[in-house]
Amino acid sequence: MKLNTKLTLFNAISKLVIAILFVLLLPVLIRNINQNFTDTNLHKQKNKILHIIHTSGIKDNVYATYSPLKEEYYSLDEDSLNEKLDTIKNEKRKIEGDTIEYRILSYNFIINKKNYLLEIGKSVDTIGETTTPLQNVAFVVLVGMILLTILADQIYTNHLLKPLGKIIKSKLIGQKFPKFGSYKEVKTSTSDFQYLDISIHKMIETIEAAFQKEREFISNASHELMTPISILQSKIENMFEQEDIADELKVRLLEMQKILNRLKSITKTLLLISQIENEQFLKEDKISITELLQEVYDEISVRLPEKNITFDILIPQDVVLININKFLLFNLFFNLVNNAIKYNKVDGEIVITTEKETGNLIVNITDNGIGISTEDMPFIFNRFKKFRQSMQQDSFGLGLPIVKSIATFHRVKIEVDSVKDLGSNFRLIFPADVIGSLS
């Protein structure tokens, strides 16, 4: 999940939790607000009545009135209690046979040496009439505020993380490993992203320099080794031409020649990998997949009778590959087929099929040989990595690394499915831009 999505999800969930808490607390809050508002009004009415009493006096000792709907009532009566009273609480009163609960302010005072009790009440039912409308208004306002804040958070998060997305695309995803090109600064006012941008660039420069040194070393070492190897081979061949050479010496010379041939083969392979990775090959060839696979078959078919292996090429519709290097692709298929033969069983089979998928060309090379174990699968393209089954073969551990280098050079994706003792399938996915027309 992307960082932007995670932040948006967190903001939405946090606001949802706040909204739920607010909805749960809303009735209590509104009830308290209504009650405080009512209490304030009762105190204001008390002050107004006391002002009138102090101005005009009290004409009747007992006075009581209420509104037509009995929503409010006022009462003034002589008070027999001597204690000070100034309270507001809910009490029930019986008016004209109806028992109604009121929010009642009770206040006693002394005027003309007499104690009086003033009561001002407001029906509890009328106090709660505004609760539902207020809840609805508050809920609508809350939902609107949450939506606006989510939208604002999303816009700000996108703006804030935009430089990070550019860094990922331009420095990591958009680059061809291990060639990264020149440094282009990502414009941002966030110091953390600036530091990240510079750090990634320095790390990439270090990696690129290390790869370049490795390539130069392999290339130079391969070139330098070829000369002494060729000289030694020539000297050994000249020694064979001598008539007085002993048989024991011939055996040793043959062993030396075999070792030199192996060393020469490894050196040539390393040089080839170095040239591929340095892109020293042109991609200007054009050849049909049928013709290319037929050339591979013609070259390697002499090995099939060794294990009585059947070899089938099933291509329902021929396809032309363009902008490729024929020599390298030949080596790619040759190495894969060679491995399919080398690690196959007696009376085994090799099948090559093709198919089209979303504009891409899929080439499957399948065998029913000894397969590859699950623990070995992640390392099959590593150089000089030799597994248990390859120990029994004349293998240098460079066949599949060559395949990987050639595939990367042509932007061909490789997928491998293998089951131990049942066989392997190498799936080559050629991009649409290397597929041409037969005409």
Structural notes for this entry:
Keywords: Kinase, Membrane, Phosphoprotein, Transferase, Transmembrane, Transmembrane helix, Two-component regulatory system. GO terms for molecular function: phosphoprotein phosphatase activity; phosphorelay sensor kinase activity. It catalyses: ATP + protein L-histidine = ADP + protein N-phospho-L-histidine. InterPro entries: BphY/WalK/GraS-like, HATPase_C_sf, HATPase_dom, His_kinase_dom, HisK_dim/P_dom, HisK_dim/P_sf, Sig_transdc_His_kin-like_C. The chain crosses the membrane at residues 12-30. This protein has 439 residues and is α+β, with helices and mostly antiparallel strands. It has three domains: 3-131, no CATH class; 191-277, Signal transduction histidine kinase, dimerisation/phosphotransfer (DHp) domain (Helix Hairpins); 285-436, Heat Shock Protein 90. Helices cover 51% and strands 21% of the residues. The chain contains nine helices and 13 strands. The protein has helices spanning 3-56, 124-127, 131-173, 191-240, 247-277, 289-300, 326-342, 388-391, 399-409; strands spanning 63-66, 72-78, 86-95, 98-111, 114-123, 285-288, 310-314, 320-324, 349-357, 360-367, 413-419, 423-430, 435-436. Strands 1-2-5-4-3 form a five-stranded antiparallel sheet. Strands 7-9-10-12-11 form a five-stranded mixed sheet, with helices on one face. A hairpin with a 2-residue loop joins strand 9 (349-357) and strand 10 (360-367). Helix 5 (247-277) packs parallel to helix 9 (399-409). It is rod-shaped. The mean pLDDT is 82.
